[in-house]
Amino acid sequence: NCRKINTMKFHHIGIACDDIESAINFVKNTFHISKVSEIIFDENQNVNLCLLQTKCNIHIELVSGVTVTRFIKKRQYLYHTCWEVNNIEESITNFINNGAVLISESKKAILFNYRRVAFLMTSIGVIELLESKDR
Predict the structure, then answer these.
(1) 74: helix, coil or strand?
(2) How far does CA 89 lie from the centroid of its chain?
(3) What backbone phi and psi angles, to 5 degrees, belong to 16?
(4) Residue 76 to residue 91: CA distance in whole angstroms
(5) DSSP character for 39?
(6) Residue 108 — φ and ψ, nearest 5°?
(7) pLDDT, the chain, mean
(8) Pairing verdict, β 40-42 and 47-54
(9) H/E segment holding residue 14
(10) What percent of the chain has pLDDT over 90?
């Protein structure tokens, strides 16, 4: 039964920035943007967030705040890739069993209508897991 398989679907790319409004303007002026969310402060993650959507339905999440300061200092602006999963706990376990380290336990994310997210450090960088809407 396919519903029982824990699928992963690419959701967005996360970009670290020190000035979120300037980054929004750059992305809006450089990419073909069809939607821009409000800037939202997520106290669970201690960051400001904005989600932009291109006309080709690609999502770009801009992240600014204390959590990404060390990335910005290293000029590492590509912060994470996000994957939507239908079972976040099973996915976390699978990543850990394959050498990932949980760096932020699952918690509700205001930008995604309080669906749970978790962050893991992997051999290919930071991965965010986002609980599916269908859960």
Answers:
(1) coil
(2) 17
(3) -80, 140
(4) 26
(5) P
(6) -70, 135
(7) 93
(8) antiparallel
(9) strand 8-16
(10) 90
- Give the separation between CA 76 and CA 68, rounded to whole angstroms: 9
**Neighbouring residues of 27: CB distance < 8 A, sequence distance ≥ 6:** 33, 52, 60, 62
Q: Is the pLDDT of residue 5 over 90?
A: no
The structure tokens 């599916």 sit at 132
Distances in Å between the alpha carbon of 94 and those of 6, 8, 87, 90?
10, 12, 11, 6
Q: Measure the CA–CA gap between 103 and 119, rounded to whole angstroms.
A: 6
> Which residue in this structure is represented by tokens 């602006």?
77
Residue 1 pLDDT grade (very low, low, confident, very high; cuts 50, 70, 90): very low
DSSP state at residue 79: E
Beta bridge partners of 47: 42, 65
Mean pLDDT of the 92-109 span: 96
Task: Return the bridge partners of 64, or none.
Answer: 48
Question: Which tokens hold the place of 128?
Answer: 């965010």
